[in-house]
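Why this split exists: single-chain examples teach little about how molecules sit against one another. For that reason, every record in the complexes split bundles all components of an assembly together and asks for one structure covering all of them. Below is a record exactly as it appears in the raw files.
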Amino acid sequence: MTREHERELELLAGHALSALGAEEEAEAERLLAEHVPGCGTCRDAVDDLQAVVGELALAARPVDPPELLLARIRREIREGDRRPRRGLGLVAAAVGITALVGMAGLSASLGSRATRAEAERITAVEMLSAMRDPSTNPVPLEAMSATTAGGLVEVAHEEQLYLYGEGVPAPQPGHAYRLWLGSDGVFHPVGEPFAPRDGIVLLRITVDPTRFDEILITEEPLGEEPERPRVEGRTWHADLAA
Amino acid sequence: MNEADRADLELHRRVALGDGEAFEALYRRYAGVAYGLARRVTAQEALAQEVVQDAFLALWRAPEAYDPARGPFRTFFLSLVHHRAVDAVRREQRLRDRGERAANLEPPVGEDVAEGVVRDADLELRRKRVLAALDELPPEQRTVLEMAYFGGATQTRIAEELGIPLGTVKTRTLAAMRKLRRALEQEG
């Protein structure tokens, strides 16, 4: 095995453990999309790494969860089953088609991947499920400058916020995108910095979006913890209160 | 694939058809392990419950996310729990770093909680094998692996805390994971 392969496998090991910083995570994602599908050594290694991550869970002391937890899960499932599956509204229909097209592309590119791939696929399925829920309100985000191409949609559902985008340009070198939620003009960064893969963004964030009235995505330098959004780079915006 | 793995596969197949009893059978088999893991990673009971609930609901809502060709259901599901637990702990950390109210203010859980019993003989046997394989690792490799896996730390933070180069953290991590894989493969 070449030294270059060792470096790649070290990156994939960090990825499997969810232990990479934003920049390296983006590199690992690129590796998984572009190199791993065609490399038998890396493909096998990815499967082996995921097996270790799964088996290591058994080293934690098992603890019986409270009985209440199963009751809560049963209730969630019952309520989910009772939700009417009516036809999609006009806005949701347009968004849904976009999301389905994007998801098909995503599934194909994830074909031989492991670890986070399954989690991402779940996020996609959850987001589509949320879109079918009448209480869900997909909000298209508006590009705020001519260079900000690509469409992004925010979907809020049961204290989960899903962000989907396609045709999203890569951030400038050394930068990543940040999601901000604002209330009365004060914005808070939410979740980790992110970058599109093959133009696609698919994020799931646990937050109650009803507490906020604006959503903003900005381009921020990597490695910095911005206190306020930097709107000089590519920026998307939506008014949640509208 | 052993008998327990085949039983999981059958339960998963039924879950994909909307069989609630099969779902609860998987819950009974994995809830204790999943909660023990989430509790150790997040060190918060409420957050750990949220992680486990979230993982099981994801399984119910999107069972097709598991591809049997990629390995046993067990490793898929527990990887998912781990991934979500690390996400949850990073989210909490960000809130704390910004000096804001964290979603869970309860004190971190200690180690004095009575250990749950792994009633499942197959999982109990596997747990013993994993602990034995971890014991065999050189201490410096075990430390970086446990800081990442159970501490939810990034490799950069581990390097800072241990005062060693990032490259060393990466090399030790990969070496540890390879040794564990070999040890667990030999045990079957």
